[in-house]
């Protein structure tokens, strides 16, 4: 699966779980901080569901401290890890259809729509749109009506309706491109001058660099 920056695991189960951990830890922080927390878990040989569940809360909180809100995320990560472990890991989860998996994820403490869809797309390789801040910002500026304000599921369903062959690989690649584009051009304060979408962008048309 392209783009998601998981790098410690050497097998499908380990990679999927690492992605799920990263999806929880990246809430309300940037990926550089998540990488530090993942490195701590890896160094402690705790980037594994059973090993995380063996840790007490204080030890786990200290390992993930760089990700911020570490006490809240300790509870959320433990809840996700417990659910993952009890479901039989990647092998057990892959037996279920996507809608059921999404409902299951959303029932876990601390897992919202974006976190659930990160896990579905990148860890479980299911064809879902991840609607994050970058996606909303880009589509809003391109002129999609109410992209910034629509409820998550309504926006996601409309995007999928307009998508041909929405495979997980294609959706992951598109989402990665959206994120990279947003970081380079469609920032909070946009850098429109060299944007390759400028001629098609309602917001940026006619604006100069940084306009």
Could you give a short account of the major beta sheet? none
Q: In percent, how helical is the residue content?
A: 55-70%
Q: How many helices does DSSP assign?
A: 11
Q: If you compute it from the alpha carbons, what radius of gyration comes out, rounded to the nearest whole angstrom?
A: 18 Å
Strand content: under 5%
Rough outline: globular
Structural class: mainly alpha
Please tally the β strands and state the result.
Answer: 0
Distance between the termini: 35 Å
Low-confidence stretches: 207-211
**Mean residue pLDDT:** 89
Following the backbone from N to C, one meets helices and strands in this order, namely HHHHHHHHHHH
Produce a short descriptive summary.
With 211 residues, this protein is mainly alpha-helical. Helices cover 56% and strands 0% of the residues.
What are the salient characteristics of this protein?
11 helices, 211 residues, mainly alpha
Question: How is this fold's topology laid out?
Answer:
Elements lengths: L11 H14 L5 H13 L5 H6 L2 H7 L6 H17 L2 H5 L4 H9 L6 H11 L9 H10 L9 H10 L6 H17 L27
Helix pairs in contact: 1-2, 1-5, 1-8, 4-5, 7-8, 9-11
